[in-house]
Amino acid sequence: MPSLIERLLPDYDEALDLDGFSGRRLASRLSAIAEIGLTAEDGSGRPGYSPAEKKAKDLVCDWMRDAGLAVRRDAAGNCFGRRAGRSDHLPVVLCGSHIDTVPNGGHFDGVLGVLLALETAEMWKATGFEPERPYEIVIFSEEEGSSFNVGCVGSSAIVGAPLIEQLGGVSDHNGRSFSSAVEQVGLSLADFPAARRDLSQIAAFVEVHIEQGLVLEGHGLPVGIVSGICGLVSLEMTVTGQAGHAGTTPMAYRRDALVAASRIVAAVSELPGQVSDTAVATVGQLNVSPNGSNVVPGRVRFSVDIRDVAAEPLERLVARIVETATRLASTAGVTLSWTRTFSQPPIAVDEKLKAQQAEAMRAVNLAAFELPSGAGHDAMVMGEHVPMAMFFVRSKDGISHNPREFSSLNDCATAAHALSRFLTRLVTNTD
Predict the structure, then answer these.
(1) Do you find a cis peptide bond into 162, omega within 30 degrees of 0?
(2) How many domains does the chain have?
(3) How far is it, in rounded angstroms, from Cα 261 to Cα 19?
(4) Of 81, 239, 271, 399, which has the most beta carbons under 10 Å away?
């Protein structure tokens, strides 16, 4: 299969190479990161706090140093590249995303936001622009939460969320603890609180991300302004029955955890529509034990991802799912335990920043089109504490979390110019 750069460059309009932006540089960097954790299906496999994620972070840190940025890493593994401002005491404009992926994910999710933040610094360097206030690129750790069902870990550490108690008790499907995972990349969970920042020293947080949906494509638009981010609740449920021999345990005497779990899973898919037109719920991870072909399953652990754009129906749906799962488990003669592993309310984008985004879009001849985000991002964590804004970049066929995930280089370049205009205004404004 052709490399990512070979797929990006042929249709690229080099007229977009202006103001210090380089489409070839961006394509080359996207392709280089895609090679780290490349899967057999040509996807990306860089779980949070894995050696592959660290290797990708280290590579971007090298590029940030080459761009003249001061690079540092905090106690939670977040990486920063800082461009000093003429008034360097002013609160910083922070821009970036994550670089970890879901299992066999795509090559743009998160990564594009990091590299476009870096492109802005490259453009300023090429044109001799001097920011008035400091600017920092951030690579957040473990946004996806694909191994431990706890996402946005790095951004949560920055805002001072209480992580130690929550993360100290979680493990992946192989029984590996979160603590041991971070230790393999040279970190310690006990040190995570040191990553907390003085949030009064962050003027704004900006994130660019692929849309992961069909709205922009349906409207024929390369870039959009995010109007707000949906709320997200992640549950982990465990159904416990009784393991037994598949040949000698009569059907009437079975306490099959998988049969009970399957009824719950089916109910999860039916409940959102009973609560809200915008609500969704997904079981995306299932672990069966003992997982033998001739053994009645004795325990099933699974994730439940619940989202909505408004807080009240979101919490109502969570309660409905827990209530229904409890009832179905009781009817099947098995037990249910559950924990809320992550919770984030819906977050609105800062209205002043959104107006400035619209101006930046119009300045590069783009429609100031707004759309909500159905996916959670580090921006939702940051946006609870500091002014936040997001841009979306068109996703081909709306595909994401999949090796077929793709955004054209022309769309990425267009987003780079809109972002640069927006950030230039933010780092020039000293109010």
Answers:
(1) no
(2) 2
(3) 56
(4) 239
